[in-house]
Amino acid sequence: MKLFLVLCSGILFGLGLSISEMVNPTVVLNFLDVFGQWDPSLIFVMGGALLTVAIGFRWIFIRQKPLFSEKFHLPTAKDIDKNLVVGSAIFGIGWGLAGYCPGPVIAGLAYLQFEPILFCFAMFIGFKISQLVKNK
Amino acid sequence: MQSLSSYLSPLFGGFLIGCSALLLMLVLGRIAGISGIASSLLNKGTTDKIWRLVFIIGIIIGALLLQLVLPKSLPFRAELSTIVIVIAGLLVGFGSHYGSGCTSGHGVCGIGRFSSRSIVATITFMVTAAITVFIIRHMVG
Questions:
Q1: What is the DSSP string of A18-60?
Q2: Which of B 72-101 lie inside 8 A of A, CB atoms?
């Protein structure tokens, strides 16, 4: 039951990314092109998701614990440190270069196209490099 | 600007992404941050890999389902050069892990919890991404 619900959650995520066109890197780049032919539609994706989450989290956190875990696993870090800013800045450059961020490019694997497959491969190598650097 | 109705599917898609994040929080108490969920699959110390893999597979199934019902015309664009894709993939992977989150983890779930770290992270990657697009489209291209 637990894994079935997790699967449903993943499916909802994939549906949301594809219905909203976030899976299309051209739409993403047009959104990021603030000084050109700006396409604001992705604001509605983030806005819709944010609003849903902001309202829903309050309601979920009334519970003592989740349905299938002993506690809520929330990030404990509070400081705005160098890793956070440097990492996010680097991530943004990569996002702007190709128009893919981790969720949409994984959803994009469904289309069996060369670009997302290669991108995912490189992205996982990037994850690994960061893990090695951070654990040093 | 496009007509108002063209913003309904982004809004609805965003709502579904939000529902996904709520479901994962309700069921497992986990943040639906894709870079975190995906990257920890590579981590030897991660003991709970199964739900992470199931979630990732779910994302692909979700996109596949919509493609079966309402097919998008593929490919989305003329392919970028291999080297650009590889560099962009490395930067996205490295940066999102190093900065502890991406568009979903920081941009949606983090800001949804009013985390100041996530607000800073989201502004940072939005700005560097917009600058990158500006340079490529309006200075180089």
A1: HHTTTT-HHHHHHHH-TTSS--THHHHHHHHHHHHHHHHHHHH
A2: 72, 74-77, 79-80, 82, 84-101
Number of structural domains (chain A) is 1
Summarised one tens digit per residue, pLDDT across range A13-43 is: 999 999 999 999 999 999 999 999 899 999 9
Whole-Å CA distances, A103 to A100, B44, B45, B93: 8, 22, 23, 11
Residue A135 pLDDT > 90, yes or no? no
| Buried-state track A26-53, b at ≥16 Cβ within 10 A, e below 16 | ebbbbbbbeeeeebebbebbbbbbbebb
Q: What is the pLDDT of residue B2?
A: 59
Residue span of the structural domain in which A45 resides: 2-134
| Stated pTM of the model | 0.96
Domain ranges (residues) in chain B: 4-140
Q: How confident is the model at residue A53 (pLDDT cuts 50, 70, 90)?
A: very high
A-contacting residues of B 21-60, CB under 8 Å? 21-32, 34-35, 38-39, 42-43, 50-51, 54-60
> How far is residue B96's CA from residue B103's CA, in Å, rounded to a whole number?
9
Report whether pLDDT(B26) > 90.
yes
Tell me how far CA of residue B113 lies from CA of A11, A59, B11, B107, B116, in angstroms.
Answer: 23, 12, 20, 10, 9
